[in-house]
Amino acid sequence: MTKPRPIQVTDVILRDAHQSLIATRMRTEDMLPICQQLDEIGYWSLEVWGGATFDACIRFLKEDPWERLQKLRAALPNTRLQMLLRGQNLLGYRHYADDVVAAFVQESADNGIDVFRVFDALNDLRNIETAMRAVKDAGKHAQGTICYTTSPVHNSELYVQQAKQLQDMGADSIVIKDMAGLLTPYGTYELVKAIKEAVPLDLAIHSHSTSGLAPLCQLKAIEAGADRIDTSISAFAGGTSHPSTEAQVAALKGSPYDTGLDLKKLTAIDDYFREVRKKYQQFESEFTREDISVQINQVPGGMMSNLANQLKEQNALDRIREVFDEIPRVREDLGFPPLVTPTSQIVGTQAVYNVLSGERYKTITNEVKRYLQGGYGRPPAAVDEKLRNKAIGKEAYSDERPADSIKPELAKLRKDIGDLAKNDADVLTFAMFPDLGREYLQQRADGTLVPEALLPPDSGGKPKASMATEFKLDVHGESYDVAITGVGESGAGRRKIYLSMDGMPEEVIFEPLNEYVAQKGDKRKKATEPGHVTAAMPGNIVDVLVAEGDSVSAGQAVLVTEAMKMETEIHANIDGKILTVNVAKGDRITPGEVLIEIG
Prior knowledge:
Elements: E1 8-11, H1 16-21, H2 28-31, H3 35-39, E2 45-50, H4 53-61, H5 65-75, E3 81-85, H6 98-110, E4 115-118, H7 129-137, E5 141-147, H8 156-168, E6 173-178, H9 185-198, E7 202-207, H10 214-224, E8 228-231, H11 245-252, H12 263-278, H13 294-297, H14 301-313, H15 320-333, H16 343-356, H17 366-372, H18 385-392, H19 410-417, H20 424-432, H21 434-446, E9 469-475, E10 478-489, E11 495-501, E12 504-510, E13 516-518, E14 532-533, E15 539-544, E16 551-552, E17 557-563, E18 566-571, E19 576-581, E20 588-589, E21 596-598
Parallel strand pairs: 1-2, 1-8, 2-3, 3-4, 4-5, 5-6, 6-7, 7-8
Antiparallel strand pairs: 9-10, 10-11, 11-12, 12-13, 14-21, 15-17, 15-20, 16-19, 17-18, 19-21
Helix pairs in contact: 6-7, 6-20, 8-9, 9-10, 15-16, 19-20, 20-21
């Protein structure tokens, strides 16, 4: 046991806690009123940015993530602000050129980030070198990250070696990031002890409470020499989130490890967030509670709530247990990557496709193909060669650092986004999510940003029939103001929803699988013939690769779609000529529709 000393606390209430429990939906307007009280606590840091918050801001909340950071910096002048950065992936889902990584880190530092927790999903530390160097160049705290997981190839000796490499990179501190809650108390003690004996840097423990073991793991980590723990205000603690700040402060109070934090002040902050959480009930899920089966499926907290929400949107929530069972099998096929963004999305989405299509790897996402080509780095273990051959055939696998093959791209990004970008931060928003970022910036310029609606707290997750739920609807370039004014039965499994569209009443019927049936206008017909090209999952059209009159061969890619943030090619199922193309880039699609007809 090491010499006792006060333990430092990083609170994740403004980032990872709500990412893990309510699908990253907390809005800036619900953060700012409590910032003064948070600023007075004396935390070592507050995690406020990075992870999925950037994506959620522009995709759902229609907020500028940079503006959120600026406001939080102004509201928290006395507290270190911390972010989670995915190394060469930054906050997107691909690797970026080194010049983009350096620019993003500097812009984040200029806007208020003090501590950068830098990780790579594969623990391929080549992928964090540029980001770590950029953090040091910006004069900020570089926290090197070990993504903890279990597999036949992961052990304490490997993690100690990684800690030494992080020290050699210039890390100011190290964190063990247990994103799925896989640590056990005595395993934690041995791992922390081994790392602290080998590397004389401050060590933090970040562990989700999914299995219920995280508070115990943190206490054993402290006994073994850990210097810092990640916690969340209890209103957003537990389950797939983190140990309660108040509980851990109370557990250490009066001991040589006493944090010195004031429980009364923390309790007042908890009262505030308990009221805030009620606003987001529509994003709550039974799958974010404590569940020891995480030791089997290894699904991390942030992935759990988002996966449940995405399956619910596709009317497939009843199959989530099948997906959880499939995830470890896909992970083994891919060489046991730790499940953290983006590998959690890569593995999770492929598992969903495997389950919903009824055949494993009938559809393989572009991200899985890129992974098998070496596009994300070096897998921890050998991948399934049959899968690699099916996915990429004779295409070359590269073992080089993926960013080495990416030319500088910042100048091109500036040119591509043009006048929609008012500053470098806007260019970087576009870089993270080209289509989504451009759409956001265009809507901002047009004054048409409409955030995702929140349902009233007493609605039971559904709009009241007696009140109008208003939103905007874009159909073929035309914008409509829509108000849902009531619901009723319509037989044969259909539901009538009564709408007011620009003041003109319409009746619209929604069928199972969110299939849209309107009394006016056309809709895509059902796929019934071999030449009818359709999709396996609901999603959006990213690209149309063919035109009417083109000749195609069976197996040729004709469309690229996006579902659950992952892209997938749709292929021609017969040889022939393209008779009709019924979709365009950006269109929403549902399974069973004829997207392209081949004859």
